[in-house]
Please model this.
Amino acid sequence: MKYKYQAKCSQCGQGFSAPTRTELLEKLRKHLWKEHRDWMIRRIKAGQRKRKKADKVKIVGLPASILNPSWIGFAEKPVIEKVTGLPYEEVKSRVLDFFVSMLLGGIKKP
Ligand SMILES: [Zn+2]
Model:
């Protein structure tokens, strides 16, 4: 079953595919937290230390503070919408894109 969107786990090389980007990211996120939890936690901590670097990455319309990967899956929808002034789904998709490109070198597109 090969879907349109594909990505590989940077830790164990397991491949993932899904019919939509959102589903792919959800699969990856679940996998990373389930199989590589310690690594994820280290990664988030490292990300916080490297925040200055991350600030250089331009994501239009999003404050740098939203780029902390620990937001993903933790922040409440109303909080995100209040902080960013953008619809939650929009923010989630941008943050996930950013997160994935940092962690996995991006998503292969057809
Ligand atoms: Zn893995």
Remarks:
- The first helix runs from residue 21 to 35.
- The chain has two domains: 1-57, 60-110.
- The helical segments are 21-35, 37-49, 51-55, 77-84, 88-104.
